[in-house]
């Protein structure tokens, strides 16, 4: 009991002198402190409940417990201002102990939490900085987008045309409008490249004539950089307008414009060719403002300068293309005009040759026919010699006419090969028979050697082949006074094609064709080796021939070469010099017939000279020719052969006279259609074929059209003038035997 009494006394014993007013204030303060402490945890609970992302909820719970305990301590402390029991003291003690524990734990926890909170603050500052940087980048992007939009707009305006002057003027106008410039100018290099000339300005209308030296330091500074450079408003290239008023001149920048292609670019004395040349673009801001150049504006100016350079290069290329196209058009017009003139000249020449051919063959026909008739009469030796001379000269003239016409057709490309199956051996034998009489007179030994593997028949142009062989052999006889002439014909072997003398000849072996190699060797006058290339030129002869031998027309070998080329071959001449003879060799391509033993077609390429049937007594023949001399000559030939001849001078007379009794009708066909119409009307007159006479055309025209027209209207034959007695005899024999005869043209 004493202990309890003592403890009670100690508990209620005052610690200091109590002042009732102070105690009252402390009592009220503790109440409100306790009330505040209890309200703060409620607010924290509300905050934690509403916040879904706060990372330190357990810390707030611990802090809330600390505050609650502090509030409880102050609340309990209200009972200690008066006499209180031991229970109140124990509760007060427990509350203070718990408050001390929780406060220490909270303090220790805050030591660990504060660095995290500080790092969060750091991240927050970092994020703010990043956000600010991002805002700046977005501003740059927006600026670049704006610059790009302006660039696209300017590029579109600049490239909307490919005219140089329009490009440059448009550039200044669009830059002035986009950047709100006071002035914009373009300086171009002069032809000498030593000065820059003011070529275009934004405001001034006629800036031509103002020049500055190109080697000024400010110009070198701009030309040495690919960026826009700020320059002084007082430098020569920037003094574009006089400064007036109280404002200072605006900032000025200059940028170089590469002139990538200035070929033939003539403007205000621009250089004709500039490989590394620049123009200078000067841009001036308004003088009545404090505005300065921004980075994006300078970038815009640089991009536009590059675009102008590209547009100028494209314009230059277009101008060159247009100039080339116009030049090509002019050349095509000139070529077309020249072609038409050439065609007109060729037609005129062909018409002239056709007329001259006909007109020259007409008297030749009379000369040869009458000479051949005279030759078959009783003549003295002297008279016969003169007649033979006339015949030889006439035949030579006829050969010359044929050579000229062949050469003309070879040159204009109208001559085409006529491919037929023919006897190859017969061609060589016939050439030998034709040349032998002349060789015998000159006492020349003439030999022919045909290889054992030489095909008997071949496919090709028999007439052109024979003409080539005859021309080469004829030259050998003509230019040989004594000795021998040998003709060798073999099938060319592939290894012989590698001969160094024929490097440009590249034949292609095949089973459907072979290559004929003909070599004619003589012991005649020979040729200087340096003169050999000239022999294949028309109207050309070697010096030895001109001085020592018989003269010719100079057409034979030129024609032979063209014939050989048409037959896909090659011809060449070899000689060791004057007096050492000559060797002519040629190779031609011939086809292999499907049936080698088949006989030749009735359309013979030549007129046979000897026939068994030479008696034509009683054969009724009608001759129609509007030329009286030719009519009489042809009649004389036929009368000499024993024919019963009737003549007509016009188509109407011929149509009236012709009857079934006439076996053959010879009619002259010229360049007109009169003879062809007559042939068709004769066929219409005789319904039955056995009653119709054979219709044969006599012509001096050697073009292929004449033969085609004759065959088209149904004629039975075509004979070339001039005619001799032997030729007429062969014509009649062939006609009566085969009822058809077309002499090759």
TrEMBL record:
Subcellular location: Endoplasmic reticulum membrane
Main location class: endoplasmic reticulum
Cofactor(s) recorded in Swiss-Prot or TrEMBL: Cu cation
Domain Response regulatory: 620-736
Co-factor binding details: Binds 1 copper ion per dimer.
Membrane association type: Multi-pass membrane protein
One GO MF term attached to the UniProt entry: ATP binding
Residue positions binding Cu cation: 70, 74
InterPro entries the record matches: CheY-like_superfamily (IPR011006), ETR (IPR014525), ETR1_N (IPR058544), GAF (IPR003018), GAF-like_dom_sf (IPR029016), HATPase_C_sf (IPR036890), HATPase_dom (IPR003594), His_kinase_dom (IPR005467)
Short name of one Pfam family: HATPase_c
Position(s), cross-link Glycyl lysine isopeptide (Lys-Gly) (interchain with G-Cter in ubiquitin): 721
Record key words, sorted: ATP-binding, Copper, Disulfide bond, Endoplasmic reticulum, Ethylene signaling pathway, Kinase, Membrane, Metal-binding, Nucleotide-binding, Phosphoprotein, Receptor, Transferase, Transmembrane, Transmembrane helix, Two-component regulatory system
Chain positions with 4-aspartylphosphate modification: 668
GO CC annotations, alphabetized: endoplasmic reticulum membrane
Transmembrane stretches, start-end: 27-48, 60-82, 88-114
Catalytic activity annotation: ATP + protein L-histidine = ADP + protein N-phospho-L-histidine
Protein name: Ethylene receptor
The organism of origin for this protein: Arachis hypogaea
């Amino acid at each position: 009991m004493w202990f309890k009494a003592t403890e009670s006394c100690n508990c209620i014993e005052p610690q200091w002198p109590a002042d009732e007013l102070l105690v009252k204030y402390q009592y009220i303060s503790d109440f409100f402190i306790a009330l505040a402490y209890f309200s703060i945890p409620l607010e924290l609970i509300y905050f934690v409940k509403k916040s879904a992302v706060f990372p330190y909820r357990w810390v707030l719970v611990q802090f809330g417990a600390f505050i609650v305990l502090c509030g409880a301590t102050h609340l309990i402390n209200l009972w200690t201002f008066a006499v209180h029991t031991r229970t109140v003291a124990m509760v007060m003690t427990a509350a203070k102990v718990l408050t001390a524990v929780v406060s220490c734990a909270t303090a220790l926890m805050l030591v660990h939490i504060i660095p995290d909170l500080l790092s969060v603050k750091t991240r927050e500052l970092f994020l703010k900085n990043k956000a600010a940087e991002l805002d700046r980048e977005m501003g740059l992007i927006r600026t670049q987008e704006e610059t790009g939009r302006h660039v696209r707009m300017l590029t579109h305006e600049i490239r909307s045309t490919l005219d140089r002057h329009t490009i440059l003027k448009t550039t200044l106008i669009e830059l002035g409008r986009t950047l709100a410039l006071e002035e914009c100018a373009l300086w171009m290099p002069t032809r000498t490249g030593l000065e820059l000339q003011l070529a275009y300005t934004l405001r001034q209308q006629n800036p031509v004539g103002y020049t500055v030296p190109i080697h000024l330091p400010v110009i070198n500074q701009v030309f040495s950089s690919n960026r826009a450079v700020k320059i002084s408003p007082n430098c020569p290239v920037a003094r574009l307008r006089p400064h007036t008023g109280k404002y200072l001149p605006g900032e000025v920048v200059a940028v170089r414009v590469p002139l990538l292609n200035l070929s033939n670019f003539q403007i205000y004395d621009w250089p004709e060719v500039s490989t590394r040349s620049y123009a200078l673009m000067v841009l001036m801001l308004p003088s009545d403002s404090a505005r300065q150049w921004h980075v994006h504006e300078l970038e815009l100016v640089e991009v536009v300068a590059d675009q102008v350079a590209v547009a100028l290069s494209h314009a230059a290329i277009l101008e060159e293309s247009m100039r080339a196209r116009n030049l090509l058009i002019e050349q095509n017009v000139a070529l077309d005009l020249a072609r038409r003139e050439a065609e007109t000249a060729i037609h005129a020449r062909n018409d002239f040759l056709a007329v001259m051919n006909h007109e020259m063959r007409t008297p030749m026909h009379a000369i040869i026919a009458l000479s051949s008739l005279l030759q078959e009469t009783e003549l003295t030796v002297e008279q016969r010699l003169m007649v033979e001379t006339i015949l030889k000269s006439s035949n030579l003239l006829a050969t010359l006419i044929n050579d000229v016409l062949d050469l003309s057709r070879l040159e204009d490309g109208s001559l085409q090969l006529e491919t037929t199956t023919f006897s190859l051996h017969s061609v060589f034998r016939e050439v030998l028979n034709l040349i032998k009489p002349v060789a015998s007179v000159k006492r020349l030994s003439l030999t022919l050697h045909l290889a054992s593997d030489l095909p008997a028949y071949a496919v090709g142009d028999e007439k052109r082949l024979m003409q080539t062989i005859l021309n080469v052999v004829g030259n050998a006889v003509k230019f040989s006074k004594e000795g021998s002439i040998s003709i060798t014909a073999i099938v060319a072997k592939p290894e012989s094609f590698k001969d160094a003398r024929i490097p440009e000849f590249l034949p292609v072996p095949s089973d459907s064709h072979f290559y004929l190699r003909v070599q004619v060797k003589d012991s005649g006058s020979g040729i200087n080796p340096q003169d050999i290339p000239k022999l294949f030129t028309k109207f050309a002869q070697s010096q030895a021939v001109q001085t020592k031998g018989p003269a010719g027309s100079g057409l034979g070998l030129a024609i032979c070469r063209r014939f050989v080329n048409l037959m896909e071959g090659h011809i060449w001449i070899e000689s060791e010099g004057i007096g050492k003879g000559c060797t002519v060799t040629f190779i031609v391509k011939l086809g292999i017939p499907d049936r080698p033993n088949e006989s030749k077609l009735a359309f013979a390429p030549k007129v046979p000279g000897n026939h068994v049937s030479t008696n034509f007594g009683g054969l009724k023949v009608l001759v129609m020719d509007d030329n009286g001399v030719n009519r009489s000559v042809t009649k004389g030939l036929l009368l000499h052969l024993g024919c019963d001849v009737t003549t007509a001078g016009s188509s109407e007379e011929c149509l009236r006279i012709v009857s079934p009794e006439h076996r053959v009708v010879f009619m002259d066909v010229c360049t007109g259609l009169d003879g062809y119409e007559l042939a068709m009307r004769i066929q219409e007159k005789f319904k039955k074929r056995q009653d119709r006479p054979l219709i044969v055309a006599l012509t001096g025209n050697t073009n292929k059209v004449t033969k085609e027209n004759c065959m088209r209207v149904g004629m039975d034959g075509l004979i070339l003038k001039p005619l001799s007695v032997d030729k007429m005899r062969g014509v009649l024999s062939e006609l009566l035997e085969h009822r058809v005869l077309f002499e090759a043209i």
